[in-house]
Design goal:
Elements (H helix, E strand, L loop, with lengths): L1 H15 L4 H8 L3 H12 L3 H13 L5 H23 L5 H9 L1 H33 L6 H17 L2 H15 L7 H4 L15 H15 L5 H4 L9 H27 L1 H4 L5 H6 L10 H31 L4 H17 L4 H32 L12 H10 L1
Length: 398
């Protein structure tokens, strides 16, 4: 009995001992698939619902070629991001900005990036609510709907990077089945609607590429999530696969929409993707677009939760506050931004400003920081992924 008791005491001591830093970081790290799906699902927000119409308005029936061009531009941007992030090892965009630009300028730039994430959270959530109210619940109060929708977004954001990575995997497989709904309109496409193939002028094709780029913004979250990636040597491959999955989905939906509706008719549809869902007829399901809108909430929660978490990381890296507390402090700003637009015209105007900010933070900022880091020979990083307080919380929770 004495040996048994002493053995139990020793096992209890081993269990109560705090986990090592490497073990805790491994628990909080994102594996290859989680990194890939996180980048991919954050990109697919509300823009896909209107993308075919936006592209046709910009470059006609040949606007689908802008999707391919946008894919290559995003690939270049991802490569530049990875070069920058690998140069500073375990630092995120906030720490890199402070190290390259100095404390004051770096903190100011980090604050702008954080508020960009806050704006993205509020406007993406509000845009989805507008779709839900237009198609499902036209009499529901917008503020009430918005506040209720923030609950799951906030829950995912406060879960941290690992929860967001797992939810991204679930989101992909929970929404990928909707591509099957494209088979019904795809069987009725008319090939004449695609001809002539390469008649779009360069200026209009570049305009379509710009419109597509606004819909694929979201990959800049790699600048924040990079310290949590487990295989940093594979992050370029994971991110590249993620963005090209998005491009293939966008290209498939746009080609089907153009071939089904035609250039003239598609310009009069607000959400061509949802209208194609209405064509699908299944037993016991009268309106398939309602199922599609409800399922789309997975993507919106994943996108808004990731952006809100990224905003909270700014205060977390700047102060000794808990990550969850930092996220809560940004929630009032999200509510104010989401409820401020009184009509769709103002909401579209705000989304245009958000797209311009996305071009800067996703395309220009990494280039600027990389050039300055090379000029001033800034490199390396000693900041670790979790603070002692986070280690204590992890070991206590386990």
């Amino acid at each position: 009995m004495s040996q048994e008791a002493s053995g139990n005491q020793q096992s209890t001591k081993r269990t109560n001992q705090p986990r090592s830093r490497s073990t805790i970081l491994a628990m909080r790290s994102l594996d290859f698939s989680q990194t890939m799906f996180l980048i991919q699902t954050v990109q697919v927000g509300i823009g896909l619902l209107n993308l075919p119409r936006v592209i046709v308005e910009a470059a006609g029936h040949s606007g689908w070629q802008g999707i391919i061009l946008a894919g290559f531009l995003v690939q270049i941007a991802i490569w530049i991001m990875v070069v920058l992030l690998r140069r500073f090892e375990n630092l995120d965009i906030y720490e890199i900005a402070r190290r390259v630009l100095g404390k004051w300028v770096g903190n100011l730039l980090g604050l702008l990036f954080a508020f960009y994430c806050v704006f993205a959270t509020g406007l993406v959530a509000r845009s989805y609510i507008e779709v839900v109210q237009s198609w499902l619940f036209p009499t529901t109060s917008t503020p009430v709907f918005f506040l209720l929708f923030l609950i799951p977004c906030l829950y995912c954001a406060t879960g941290g990077a690992r929860v967001l990575g797992r939810f991204a995997v679930v989101t992909f497989f929970a929404t990928a089945w909707m591509l099957i709904l494209m088979f019904a309109p795809a069987r009725e496409v008319q090939l004449d609607y695609y001809l002539p193939l390469f008649d779009a002028p360069i200026d209009k094709l570049m305009a379509a590429t710009t419109k597509v780029s606004a819909s694929v913004i979201g990959f800049e979250m790699l600048l924040v999530v990079f310290p949590f990636v487990q295989r940093k040597d594979k992050v370029l491959l994971a991110s590249s696969i993620g963005i090209w999955i998005t491009q293939v989905i966008y290209l498939m939906v746009t080609l089907v929409a153009i071939g089904f509706y035609g250039e003239k008719f598609i310009e009069h549809l607000i959400s061509p993707t949802l209208h194609m869902f209405k064509i699908v007829q299944l037993p016991m399901i009268e309106r398939m677009e309602q199922i599609g809108i409800a399922t789309w909430s997975f993507l919106i929660v994943n996108t808004t939760g990731t952006y809100l978490w990224a905003a909270g990381r700014y205060l977390h890296t700047l102060t000794a506050w808990k990550e969850r507390t930092c996220i809560y402090l940004f929630v009032p700003f999200v509510i104010g931004i989401g409820l401020f637009p009184r009509n769709m015209f103002l909401l579209d105007e705000f989304e245009g400003y958000l797209s311009l900010a996305g071009y800067f933070f996703a395309g220009l900022l990494p280039v600027l920081l990389l050039l300055l880091a090379l000029i001033f020979k800034k490199k390396g990083g000693v900041k670790e992924d979790s603070s002692p307080q986070e280690e204590k919380e992890e070991s206590t929770a386990s």
